[in-house]
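Ticket #4471: structure output looks truncated?

Reporter: J.K.
Steps to reproduce: submitted the chain below (185 residues) through the standard prediction queue, then opened the result file.
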Amino acid sequence: MGPAADDGREGYLAFVESHQHRLLRAAYLICGNQHQAEDLLQDALLKLALRWTSVRDGDPAAYVRTILYRDAVSWWRRRRREWLSAAPPEQVAPDRDGTLRLTMHHALGQLPPRQRAVLVLRYYEDLTEVATAEALGVTVGTVKSQCHAALRRLREVAPDLARDARSGQVPAAPGDLATGLEVNP
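Returned output as attached by the reporter:
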């Protein structure tokens, strides 16, 4: 089979191989359930495969993230309940502060789906407000208000997170959700 005959199959497989772990982690943070996150990502990657030839030259990761967040919102609307997980997702690196991560996981679980999605996109995926609005299909003002409300709610349900952020005890890893608590103290 020649390069033209595979219609970009090798490129698609390379994309999936290089992005699947980060996309799975984002899906998990959005829905809070490992099995649902796997299903969500599998559906998103299937949709990407069907449109690969038209998406591959642009930003396929952004396309998949948009599918992830929109499908997650659709699932939430259909089910109208939250999925809880008994354990956090698998850790690639050793956990530096397990208590902080568990506190953050519990606090995120208490947020409404849209607020959780905004926080994940803004602080985990490190998207701009405009990119977050595009991914969720809402206005920039909605992203700002949902982000503000989510951070306020996180401070209410987990005051230790806000205290750790102000004292500088939060790990300074890029994409760490806890660093968002430093905004609007």
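Triage note (M.O.): checked the attachment and the full token line is present. The chain has a mean pLDDT of 78.
Status: closed, working as intended.
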